[in-house]
Design a protein that fits this description.
With 214 residues, the protein is of the alpha/beta class. It has a domain of 132 residues: 3-Layer(aba) Sandwich (Rossmann fold). The protein has 5 helices and 12 strands. The strands form 4 sheets. Strands 5-2-6-7-1-8 form a 6-stranded parallel β-sheet, sandwiched between helices. Strands 3-4 form a two-stranded antiparallel ribbon. Strands 9-10 form a two-stranded antiparallel sheet. A hairpin with a 5-residue loop joins strand 3 and strand 4. Helix 3 packs parallel to helix 4.
Length: 214
Amino acid sequence: MFLENTVNPKEQFGWIEVICGSMFSGKTEELIRRLKRAKFAKQKVEIFKPMVDQRYHEEMVVSHDANEIRSTPVPAAANIRLLADGCDVVGIDEAQFFDDEIVTVCNDLANKGIRVVVAGLDMDFKGNPFGPMPALMATAEYVTKVHAVCTRTGNLANYSFRKANNNKLVFLGETEEYEPLSRAAYYKAMLKEKVGAIEVTSEEVVPPQKKSNG
């Protein structure tokens, strides 16, 4: 369980919290919960998200269950450093879509005494570490991994399986395009895709018919 850090007024340093997991695991919901608690405590909070993410709303961070909080869309990580001046808490959603500078930005903010709460996918649809998330998880004081429920087995899911026929790394979607799978279900689904993609490269050679002398 994550517990907010005890603030020591003599130590003017913040910290980084990372919330990671698969699609439909509740990452954004947990991010919003923490930020709303900070707002209730009268702390100055700013929330940022990549400009590419406009699935639900241009200016709102919205979870899959329609929980929302106002945010500022930015085209690059460097913009966050400029816009977060004077904040007590900075929230960042869909961090995997930002450029690698997001790691430096988060550490710079934490070193200035700001609490930084980051949410993002830890793996892409191929099962590989996603963008800057591994580096963020390594430098964070707190890492919370949340899980979805596998749609095929009912077990805990930590993979985001892409059902849509699209190989782009950045491809926004919902339940029509993605489903959360456990390791076993994901392995079987990927194996089925590979087998289905195998093509016959040579035609069967039919031996010529022998002519009869009769």
